[in-house]
Specification:
Blueprint lengths: L11 E5 L3 H13 L3 E5 L2 H11 L4 E4 L2 E2 L2 E2 H11 L4 E6 L4 H9 L4 E4 L4 H12 L5
Parallel strand pairs: 1-2, 1-3, 3-6, 6-7
Antiparallel strand pairs: 4-5
Length: about 130
């Protein structure tokens, strides 16, 4: 489905998204580019993944999840991994939501739906030093 372009080899990515179709499509897209992808549909599963595999290099997080808020998870995870990079993927475009992203340390606040090329470009920009 997706053609690999510039490699994301060496990138450890955690996708936190409750929409199963989007979560799968994102995982497929980033695996095709060489990233090591872990995914979770809720905060509990994401915490279990981090407990089992350690913190990722990059977190792609939805905000509205069945058991909490993606920004809270990013803040918690950053206490374990201060260098964590994170990108918010949300349906919220209001200024308060963008402020919440910034306060939680997200490098970008991307509003769904979005073009895959926009997300891939942002991932490359945010993780350039991780993949060197």
């Amino acid at each position: 489905m997706y053609e690999p372009t510039e490699s994301l080899r060496g990138l450890r990515l955690l996708i936190l998204e409750d929409d199963p179709d989007l979560r799968e499509a994102l995982g497929e897209m980033f695996r095709a580019r060489g990233a090591s992808v872990m995914s979770a549909h809720d905060l509990q599963t994401a915490r279990e993944i981090v407990d089992d595999h350690g913190a990722p290099d990059l977190l792609l997080a939805d905000f509205d999840l069945p058991d909490g808020h993606g920004a809270e998870f990013a803040e918690d995870l950053r206490s374990l991994a201060p260098g964590l990079r994170a990108i918010a993927l949300t349906g919220h475009r209001e200024p308060e939501s963008m402020d919440r992203s910034h306060a939680a340390g997200f490098a970008a606040h991307l509003v769904k739906p979005l073009e895959p090329s926009t997300l891939v470009a942002m991932v490359h920009a945010v993780t350039a030093d991780v993949r060197r």
